[in-house]
Each structure stands twice: as structure tokens, then as C-alpha cells.
Recover the amino acids of this structure.
């Protein structure tokens, strides 16, 4: 079996069969990560470039580790140490990289649509590692994997994405992927952080976090993206925590069975309390481990396709 596309640009429109294949493959690689020797020769001889125009810790390290676990050759590109600082255009940067005969490009960029543009100027397989406010598909996939790992299924589960929906590419990838896999999806946050017309994507909207906690099986908590001026949409971080913060008291009062996810980085004491971030409800570090397995699966499935 193989994926229906030679790129992963987002989860919008990705068939259920493709998502299931990635999840099944990730399960195999998850077992590899438990072995004493965590390396397989699957992508030996392949060269992969991590083209990161935006800061990242988890995603970049996770992709790099996934590549090394698959025995691929990895090249890391950061704008601070590149010719982009000298005025080189994005197109020329990519063309020069491709002239070195790379097989795959992982791209993270502050502008939505850059991965799509890359498919037009490059012959390599393209994986979107986050583009603007658009999508972050591998995060969506690892969230889905983590939910199934703990809950055993997605079909019919009530999953709420809570927080700064307006600035989140994780939210969109989660909505598309979760709905495709049969979950009932909702969002929760202050009205100023919920995009107008989001109901058209088939999601329910909550403006009350206590109601959202009471009525859902899973809560995926997003941070307030202060670097995107999200702070202007709320009176203060303290007030946000008071009305929308996920605390142990809130969970114990309304839903002791709820599963808490968070894509990181965490703003402790803002969208989530330290007690919850380190407590029994959450699977935050499991998500990080699962992220390596899921990215190994995507790299393997794309890297072994006959392009």
C-alpha cells in the first residue's frame, strides 16, 4: 500500500485510508523506538533537508531524529546562518539546495502556502512542518495517534480543541484529520479567539470551558500565541487563565475521564496549570515520543514511493 500523494501539505482532503496507513506504519516504528538499537536502514542513501524559516524546537528535532532513525542523510537549514540573510530569494535558495540532489524537503515557514509553492519549483517530496496560520499536518497526525493509543478509537469520540484557535495551524490540521477519522470535533475559547465562520468546517463552538470539559472525551489545549499578537485579543493572561485555564480543580469537578493533550510549548499558569501539565490526565510527553514515530512513518511512506 502507498499514499495517494507524494507530498504531505496538510490534512484537508487527505483520504481516511492515507491517515490509517500512516497510523499503522507509525505503530510499527513506535516499537522500533523501544528497542536497544533504535535505527533501521530503510532510507539509507536518501538525503533530506530541514528547511526551517521559523523557530522550532520540538518539530525540528523530532524530524531530524526521525530521519536519523531511518538512516537518511540530514541537512539542517536555518535562515540565521544562510544566504537568505544576504538577500537571496526563497526560490533561489530552494533551487540551489535541489541542485545538490536532495530527495525530500521538510519546510516550516511563516507564510501560508509555501509548501504548496515548493511543489511547483522542486522535484523533491515536500512535507509541511507548519506554514503560517494554515496547517501543521504531522502535529495533527501525532495528536490523532496519541488519542487512539489511550482511548482505543476515534470514531464517535468528542474531541474539543481549546485556546487560541484563531492563530493556530495545529487546530486546523486537528479539525480536518479528526473529522476524517470519525470524531465529533469542537473548539472552545474566547469569542475574540474563534475565527468567524469556523462552524462551516463542521465543528461545534463553546465559549464556556467548563461545559466543554463536561461534554468531551478529549481536550487538546493550545497556547496563547503571544508572538502573533494574540495578547491583544484578551484583557490579560491572568484573566484568560481564570476563565479558560485548564486546572485540576476544573477537571476533577466536571470530568475525571478526560484526556489532555498539548502540542507545546506550554505556557504554565496561562492555558494550563502546572498541576495538570504534570498530572495524570495528560499525555504531553507521550505526544513527543509518538511524534518521532509518526514522522518516521510519513518519511518512510513518501521516501519509498516510486515518484
Amino acid at each position: 500500500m502507498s499514499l495517494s500523494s507524494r507530498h504531505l501539505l496538510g490534512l484537508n482532503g487527505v483520504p481516511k485510508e492515507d491517515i490509517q496507513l500512516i497510523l499503522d506504519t507509525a505503530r510499527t516504528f513506535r516499537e522500533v523506538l523501544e528497542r536497544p538499537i533504535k535505527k533501521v536502514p530503510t532510507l539509507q542513501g536518501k538525503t533530506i533537508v530541514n528547511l526551517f524559516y521559523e523557530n522550532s524546537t520540538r518539530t525540528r528535532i523530532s524530524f531530524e531524529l526521525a530521519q536519523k532513525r531511518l538512516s537518511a542523510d540530514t541537512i539542517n537549514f536555518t535562515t540565521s546562518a544562510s544566504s537568505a540573510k544576504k538577500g537571496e530569494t526563497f526560490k533561489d535558495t530552494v533551487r540551489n539546495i535541489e541542485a545538490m540532489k536532495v530527495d525530500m524537503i521538510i519546510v516550516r515557514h511563516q507564510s501560508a502556502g509555501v509548501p504548496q509553492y515548493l511543489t511547483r519549483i522542486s522535484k523533491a517530496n515536500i512535507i509541511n512542518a507548519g506554514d503560517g496560520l494554515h496547517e501543521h499536518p504531522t502535529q495533527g497526525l501525532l495528536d490523532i495517534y496519541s488519542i487512539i493509543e489511550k482511548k482505543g478509537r476515534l470514531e464517535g469520540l468528542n474531541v474539543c480543541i481549546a485556546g487560541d484557535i484563531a492563530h493556530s495551524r495545529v487546530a486546523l490540521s486537528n479539525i480536518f484529520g479528526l473529522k476524517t477519522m470519525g470524531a465529533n470535533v469542537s473548539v472552545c475559547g474566547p469569542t475574540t479567539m474563534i475565527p468567524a465562520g469556523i462552524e462551516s468546517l463542521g465543528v461545534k463552538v463553546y465559549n464556556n470551558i467548563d461545559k466543554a470539559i463536561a461534554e468531551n472525551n478529549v481536550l487538546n489545549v493550545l497556547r496563547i500565541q503571544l508572538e502573533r499578537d494574540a495578547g491583544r485579543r484578551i484583557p490579560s493572561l491572568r484573566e484568560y487563565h481564570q476563565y479558560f485555564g485548564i486546572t485540576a480543580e476544573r477537571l476533577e469537578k466536571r470530568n475525571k475521564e478526560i484526556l489532555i493533550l498539548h502540542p507545546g510549548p506550554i505556557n504554565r499558569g496561562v492555558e494550563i496549570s502546572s498541576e495538570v501539565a504534570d498530572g495524570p490526565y495528560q499525555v504531553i510527553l507521550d505526544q513527543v515520543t509518538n511524534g518521532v514515530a509518526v514522522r518516521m512513518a510519513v518519511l518512510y511512506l513518501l521516501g519509498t514511493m516510486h515518484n
Notes: The mean pLDDT is 93.
